[in-house]
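pasting for ref. prot 1 ->
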Amino acid sequence: MRPKKQISAIKEQDARLYVLQPDGMEARVKSGWEKEYCHLQNPGEDYFHLLVKGEVYLLHGNEKYCLRCAVRQGILTHERLSWQHPAPA
């Protein structure tokens, strides 16, 4: 069980994410141990990184994106009011 101090700190931090173009996107939780990879590479790496059991990721068609890469690529944002300033198509 988490200490009350830690719980209140979590409540103060807004950890929500928003999908900028939600059509065709699904949020999933990886449930098995089979090898599955993020569709993108981290900067400076020449390989694709694994998604691990319990990890939340986005699925768009056959492409899987870890949340970190999705934020880096502008697929996800922390900006709650992003719908007011849509990205050009």
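and prot 2 ->
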Amino acid sequence: MTTPYAGSNITGTTGVIAVDKVGNHIRFYDPESLREIKSFAAPEPAAHELAISHDRRLAFVPLYGDGIYGNNKNPNNKILVIDLEVQALADVIDLGEMTAPHGLVATSDGKLWVVADIPNKLIVVDPARREIEASYDCPSKGAHQMTLLPDESKVYVSCKEGDLAVFDRGRRTWTAAVPLRAPGIMTGNGSGSEGVMSTPAGDRLVAIDNANNDLRVIDTRTDTEVDRVPLASSPPTNPKRSRLAKLMFSPDGRYLVATSYASALAWVIDAMDLRRQTPVPVAKGPQGMAFPPDGKSVVVASHDSGLLTRIDLTEPRAVAAYDGGSGIEVLAWY
């Protein structure tokens, strides 16, 4: 099965790859039983995030360093290239001065678009030539996550401490900035956004702010905010702690699933009406999610608990749990 996306939000029947950030391992699971079948250690710290090539041959995992955003004292500067057929490390791409690579997407021309948050750059990497093709200064502070429209016309960069930044790939320039900060908040939580994802049609984009974890809906034609939807039953969280939140549309476009690291909740949301939400308790520290090819469930990785939780999308409720290594950040069927 194929989808129009180029990040980790795909599905397929061949296998499951997971990035165990806490254990600094790449893990592979049986796509039916979710039993771990193979793993290998990342050669350096620490594996974060995931993108998969359009032909499903390769996966790309950045090595961010041994810290977190704002406290990454030993940043790394590399991207792992993983052969999905043999489930093994195929190459390591050195990014030189582009330290702390994090969010990334793979485009249909074989290139990688990556944000490096310490230099605050958007970079274009040619994996075949193992080199950086271009780099662009991000206009907002804290470039950390990103998404690509299905037609690949624009890249949207979610920034921890600034406006959502819009980059036109054809014109190779920044074209818009969408304010998401809370009034009067200029740094830290409240000044930017977290997870970001395009709808399958590409007409809207949803980002989660890090003031209240509200869903911020963007019209991708005008790059302006058109709606704001709170997550139901989202508890107050400490502004001095991470408000990391992620979201992903199901490959069939029927559901939006969101997670909040600080709340131990996942939300199953009707993609046609974002106010129709069901919060589902999961294990501590939920982050990434992935969709099996049957479209009936989503699997959420709890980074702090080493657990994978399967949620039935139609009920919705947690129906099963599986071992998730030391602490998986992201995973995907392919």
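The domain at 16-333 is CATH 2.130.10.10 (Methylamine Dehydrogenase; Chain H).
DSSP finds no helices and 28 strands in the chain.
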